[in-house]
Every structure is written in C-alpha cells, then in structure tokens.
Specification:
The protein is α/β, with parallel strands linked by helices and 249 residues long. The protein has one domain: NAD(P)-binding Rossmann-like Domain (Rossmann fold, 3-Layer(aba) Sandwich). 41% of the residues lie in helices and 16% in strands. It has a 7-stranded parallel beta sheet, with helices on both faces. Helix 4 runs parallel beside helix 5. The longest helix has 26 residues. The chain is globular. The N and C termini lie far apart (47 Å).
Length: 249
C-alpha cells in the first residue's frame, strides 16, 4: 500500500493515536495535514515529522467550529490541489456522574466528538468527489459504543453515534466513489508502554495492550484504493476484550 501523491487530513493529530496515524501516512509517502486545537503540540509534531523528510503541514483547527473545519479543507485544496483521505480522530472524554453532567458539558462533547465527524466529512467530500478515484474517510469510534462502565453517557453516546453515522455516510457518499468506515479501538496505550503491568496485558486475548500503530495500520488498510470494496463497516481493534466473558468469582 502506497500513498505517494495522496493528501491526507488527520484531526486530533498533535499527539496520541492521531499522531501515530499521521506518522504512518507520512512514512507511506503521503502529504499529511495535521489538524489540532493544541497549537504548540501540533507544531511540535509537524517539526518532528518534517525531520524525517515527510511532507506535513499543521493547521490549527477547533473541530467544534464549522468555520475552522471549512478553513481546514479549503487550505488543503488550495495548498495541495486535492483531498484523498480524511481521518476523523479528534475527540475528548467526559466521565462524570449522570446526576452532575451539565447541559454545557453534554453539548460540548457532542460538538467535539460527533458533530465534527459530520462537518469534516461533509466538507472534505465536497472536494473528494472531484477526484477521478473519489476518496476515503475513516471515523475513530470506540468499543465504548457497544459496552460501558458507569458515568460514561456522553462519551458512549458520541461513539455510538459515530458508528451509526459511518454507515449512513457510506450510503450517501457512495455515488461519489467515497468509502466511509469506522474503527473502534479498545485499550490503546499512548504513554510509556513499559509502565503497563502483566495483568494489563493478560486481560486481552492478544496478551498485550494496544498501541497507536495498531490503529494506524488499520487506517492504512481501510483507505488503500485496492480495498475500496470495504465500506460502511466498524472494525473493532481491541485485542479481543469485547469478546472476553468475565464472571465474578
């Protein structure tokens, strides 16, 4: 799979899973636009990737803002002439008692995690449909779309919404040759991997906790043109945790 001459946009690219995804596309020869609200970290990521010889460009973007999203897509088109791949990765958590969550906090996570997926996809698709070979979109959801722990209503609602909007967008954009898929990561550790315990790893069928690279490789697969028969799916990447039966003893 090669992405030479492809223009890729990754939201939430300054650190964590987003940075891992952006790095993977850069290594495969893509031109990568790094979109993030955190300007200092975004520019640090841009500088680090440029040192490897990658073609990357940071665009400060608050995905809660429609005007910021429009600016991101127009910047990509104006600077590089096209948009081929969009990775909707930006998001935030909200883990708080259902009795204490405010309307402002609820609306904020909806705007950040879910509304942004719709707006980014819509604006990117306006340019993708002009490409002879269309384009590809991947939305980063979560296994919390299908399983929960207490006090996670806002996060679960947005991730479940992302899974649903993925197949809706796949249907709507199919005539424009745009594939749309979701990835639901499980436990992906973005800090010091050596600090994890044997018990952390043993909770998984895979016998290890996930890494950003695991999600990045899935993005590469789903956005490669030779895999354009794959659309409308939710790929769960969790080391088997959502298939593990747990009994209290």
């Amino acid at each position: 799979m090669t992405f030479t001459n492809k223009v890729v946009i990754v939201t939430g690219a300054a650190n964590g899973i987003g940075r891992g995804i952006a790095s993977a596309y850069a290594e495969k020869g893509a031109t990568v636009l790094l979109a993030d609200v955190e300007e200092a970290k975004g520019k640090q990521t841009e500088s680090a990737l440029k040192q490897t010889g990658a073609e990357v460009f940071f665009v400060k973007t608050d995905v809660r803002s429609e005007s910021d999203i429009i600016n991101l897509m127009e910047t990509a088109k104006r600077t590089y002439g096209r948009i081929d791949v969009l990775i909707n990765n930006a998001g935030k958590g909200l883990f708080k008692s259902v009795y204490e969550v405010t309307v402002e906090e609820w609306d904020d996570i909806i705007r950040t995690n879910l509304r942004s997926v719709f707006l980014c996809s819509r604006e990117a698709a306006k340019f993708m449909r002009d490409n002879e070979d269309g384009g590809t979109i991947v939305n980063i959801a979560s296994t919390r779309a299908i399983m929960s722990e207490p006090n996670s209503e806002g996060y679960a609602a947005t991730k479940g919404g992302i899974v649903a909007i993925t197949h809706a967008l796949a249907a709507s954009l199919s005539e424009d040759r745009i594939t749309v898929n979701a990835i639901s990561p499980g436990w992906i550790h973005t800090g010091d991997y050596s600090q994890l315990t044997p018990l952390d790893h043993e909770q998984h069928f895979s016998k290890r906790v996930g890494k950003p690279d695991d999600i990045a490789r899935a993005c590469l697969y789903l956005t490669a043109k030779e895999n354009d028969f794959v659309t409308g799916i939710n790929m769960v990447i969790d080391g088997g945790m959502t298939r593990k039966m747990i009994y209290e003893e």
